[in-house]
């Protein structure tokens, strides 16, 4: 069967899922046991995302194994902390298996509801976890992978970490609680990352606060060993251990933050009441940086840009739980016929130049955006 590539933020070939009737099989594969591994090492519960060939992309099967295991460890007096990491050299987790979910939405399959609902419930479980939760984000961490890490108390970046929320480029929005953590970054940085999908690497991920610590990749195995050896650690004990490793990690310390020169411009240009106003600010500014952002934003889905702008605006005033309820509504709107043709086009077409509908910001009505945020009644996410 024809195998399909997903866009470059998950650069791998999904195996033979071009036929709709195979979606469910893909998401609920019998290999579940091997796609995510759980071990007790010392007093630590260790989760390994184990799909290295797929950059540890998250599917529904994995979510359905991780959630009950976290609940179990939370209640288990023999488990003092949880560590989550990705198998292989390249990725922590490069996102969710969006392709299968989108096809399901188009086919009216319940997977499009189940995936987002259960993923967001898992994000909330991580965000409210009572025991120390340490995500070792040693590699690509995007979309769904951000959701498995950023809400936990401790996120350890390395020089191999590559962070992005690239959803506006595929007709979605930066979900998994993006409406909560992005507006809480300094100034307008979160909105900038959300709209442009720009990637941050290594130490910069920690500098902006998406990671709590930076540790060199070659020290991660040793750090993990020391973490599992901790006896009944408090959050302070874990923080002290991570800080001691951070102090030994001088790699790239002298390199300035990649956006240091642009921070003032980002705050100024992205302080606006609408996406149109941002575009106006960028055009008026005319600097090389502003022109580059104009070019980036002009390739994104106009509907996604407007949804995301409002999501970040609303999310700044909400709790994580309220944000996830809002994002579930948005996720279901994105699965409707109005969205999915464009979305599927990006995920399937080789030329990666999607024909967005509407194709301009002015073509996206306020009413269309408003509808995406409205309550689903009985079908709303319950946390």
Automatic annotation (TrEMBL):
GO molecular function, one term: 3-hydroxyisobutyryl-CoA hydrolase activity
Taxonomic source organism: Cyprinus carpio
Top-level taxon of the source organism: Eukaryota
Gene: LOC122134165
Role description: Hydrolyzes 3-hydroxyisobutyryl-CoA (HIBYL-CoA), a saline catabolite. Has high activity toward isobutyryl-CoA. Could be an isobutyryl-CoA dehydrogenase that functions in valine catabolism. Also hydrolyzes 3-hydroxypropanoyl-CoA.
Cellular component annotations (GO), alphabetically ordered: mitochondrion
Family of the protein in this entry: Belongs to the enoyl-CoA hydratase/isomerase family.
Compartment annotation: Mitochondrion
Catalytic activity line of the entry: 3-hydroxy-2-methylpropanoyl-CoA + H2O = 3-hydroxy-2-methylpropanoate + CoA + H(+)
Top EC group: hydrolase
EC number annotated for this UniProt entry: 3.1.2.4
Designated name of the protein: 3-hydroxyisobutyryl-CoA hydrolase
Pfam families membership: ECH_2
Pathway: Amino-acid degradation; L-valine degradation
